[in-house]
Request: fold
Amino acid sequence: MRIKHLTAELNRFNLYYHTYDQSLISDEEYDKLFKELQQLESEYPNFIQLDTPTQRVGGKILAGFSQITHQLPMLSLSNVFSDMSVSDLNLRHKELLQFAERIDKELAVGLDKIEFVAMPKFDGVAISLTYENGILTKAATRGDGYTGEDVTQNIKTIRNIPLSINIGGRATELLEVRGEILILTEDFAELNLLQQKKGDKIYANPRNLAAGTIRQLDSSITASRPLRFFAYSIARHSDSINYATFNAELQLLKDLGFTVDENCRLLTGVAELVDYYEQMLTRRNQLEFGIDGVVYKVNQIDLQQKLGFVSRAPRFAVAHKFPAEEVESEIINIEVQVGRTGALTPVARIKPVNVAGVIVTNATLHNQEEIHRKDIRVGDKVIVRRAGDVIPEIVRSIPEARTRELEVFHMPPSCPACGSHLIQESGETIIRCSAGLYCIAQKKQAITHFASKLAFNIDGLGEKIVEQLVDAGLINSIPDVFRLTEAQLVNLERFAEKSAKNLIESIGNSKNTTLPRFIYALGIRHVGEASAKDLAKAFGSIEKLQTATKEELMQVNDIGEVVAESILNFFVEEHNCIVINELKQLGVSYPQLIARNLFNPRVTAKTFVITGSFINYKRDEIKARLEEFGAKVAGSVSKKTDYVIVGEDAGSKLEKAQELGIPLIDELQLADLITELVIEK
Reply:
């Protein structure tokens, strides 16, 4: 069939041109075949192939992006840093040495025998590509690491991403490839030159432009911009694919037609890692794309599996970040902002300056003590950097540049937003407004947080819109968000009929949420995204969390006394409980969870064996309660067993436990343990 033949041939030409820099056909001949395929597809739409290259020019405009749950979470890497001002190599790269020593200690094979693959840490946008039966079927952003946005239609327009793959002429059943979307430095400069000639807005930096481009609802816009994809790992694959090292994994990606950066290196020992880092730091500005560090991964896959993961990062890999770029600017003013927890944060307004490709106009000053320690004053010349190449901060002032006496900065005597009195808890440097949600600044921040991506994810309800709606008197509390109507919005600045309709639809869609998002959205002090997930797993519903005791809260993984007190204080406030009840009455709902993964130091992550019969308990009940608190209940006794719970007629398992010296728990001790593990259902 001609359509099938043209699709295969054009994809082959694209592969060689965009991945291997080889032209197998003239541009004129390629265009001729491409137009022929477009014509045939318009005449015979039922025969369009799933991997047709005509998708690369963009197509149907989407109403929005649906969500994709990552089958394997897209975790971030832990970071290490080096102090390049220190001459002693061991001190300069102390954090890298600590990482290497931990790997050496846990693997116990000798650091000089452990191979690492080193590669640049791209300053781009992480993406996941899923191929089923050889065809690209899904592309998702990282999102929160667990759920991302479906950007398949846009990703198919990127010319160096294969739309179909095969191994030895056969389509593989499943392959999930991960990598980074970038815009090359030269391409970015050309784009901005074109923008300048047209009198249009100049783009800030390649990363932000790439991120915005893959989230365009009109894929023809995505197709018009020079995005590139660099593959760096395989997340999942079918059983027919095998490789023993990460180096072989990268080679397989190359063989399949993916672009893999040529700066990847196979290294052994810390000295080679240090050399690679310092070479890449020197070459950083000579590369064709932006990087903000390098990545090291243990090469052997079996050793990676042995090292495993912590909650949000692999233990076999680390990102070695480059020092932040520093530039000089001048402080125009210091303003004090009020956050959603009432914390007052001084922010420096500075003369616009380009730091690592981003125009910076303000930088955090953290608190008054930090300002006085660094002796920062309005009118000062200062050194600015982007911490971790992300958050702008003032490194230091340059007092010798002062030509006159400058006034020492002091925090205001009352809240700059509402005039309420300020409080400072013992041992804290942070000063807070005492007014809570009666403070308009805290109210705005609380609503913005509630609507944010990791919370209710209400697209279109950002900080500026929230401020506008609060100032207009349309929302006075979080539940008011769900009372908004199109009629209220259409007459406001920034709104038209379509944008008003889109926001109301987005608000309506957000009512179907998840318990972790609900908990995180409430803005409980000290409860971040990870803690919200742990609390959701532990209690299963917002009602059970509301009535939890301090002891029950502290049984949850990573919930200590300070966080437990903060949660209790939140739910003691009647207006917070009213907000939750109103949200439920307005239709906010989430799937109920079975309470699990509670934490108890005697039980969590321990292995138990149950043997014999019990007067007051069924064995299934004991097993369920232990597993609820993260224990493993095994069927046989071994050296890995932590405890054996012994009833009547215990038999050979008791003998084995006594032989190995494993602690025993009888029914009386079991009753005490079960009492410890009681939580209201």
In short: The two ends are 63 Å apart (CA to CA). The chain is about 35% helix and 20% strand. The chain has a mean pLDDT of 88.
